[in-house]
Automatic annotation (TrEMBL):
Purpose: This is one of the proteins that bind and probably mediate the attachment of the 5S RNA into the large ribosomal subunit, where it forms part of the central protuberance.
One Pfam family named in its UniProt record: Ribosomal_L18p
Protein name: Large ribosomal subunit protein uL18
NCBIfam families (alphabetical): L18_bact
Record GO cellular component, one term: cytosolic large ribosomal subunit
Upper classification of the organism: Bacteria, Pseudomonadati, Bacteroidota, Flavobacteriia, Flavobacteriales
Ribonucleoprotein is among the record's keywords: yes
Domain of life assignment: Bacteria
Any one GO MF annotation of this record: structural constituent of ribosome
Subunit organization: Part of the 50S ribosomal subunit; part of the 5S rRNA/L5/L18/L25 subcomplex. Contacts the 5S and 23S rRNAs.
Organism in which the protein naturally occurs: Taishania pollutisoli
InterPro entries listed in its UniProt record: Ribosomal_L18, Ribosomal_uL18_bac-type, Ribosomal_uL18_bac/plant/anim
Similarity field: Belongs to the universal ribosomal protein uL18 family.
């Protein structure tokens, strides 16, 4: 029997999270993509705390843009906040999504903003 889209993503997500984890020195950059918005968090998994976050929800710079451009704005914003907080390198967690489109746009703009991964 074939997996549903959500079951497939959950299986991929478990496989990814087995291998990567964020520490206080190298936190995890997690991406969540809904149908309308995109969210990014920099997480320290040892303490379970979110260090930095950004989203396209209520973001004036992301208004009136298509979804890929919104993702680029969010990536740049999360990178600026992370660099300001003293975070230079992260581990990228695509959260079970394929690495193209909005996820790739967010990752590329985060790299341009100064994050290393």
């Amino acid at each position: 029997m074939a997996f549903s889209k959500l079951n497939r993503r959950a299986k991929i997500k478990r496989r990814i999270r087995k291998k990567i984890s964020g520490t206080s020195m190298v936190p995890r950059l997690s991406v969540f993509r809904s149908n309308k918005q995109i969210y990014a968090q920099v997480i320290d998994d040892t303490t379970g705390k979110t260090l930095v976050s950004a989203s396209s929800y209520n973001n004036k710079a992301a208004e009136k843009k298509n979804k890929s451009e919104q993702a680029a704005v969010v990536g740049k914003e999360v990178a600026e906040k992370a660099v300001k907080a003293g975070i230079e390198s992260v581990v990228f967690d695509r959260n079970g999504y394929l690495y193209h489109g909005r996820v790739k746009s967010l990752a590329d703009s985060a790299r341009e903003g100064g994050l290393k991964f």
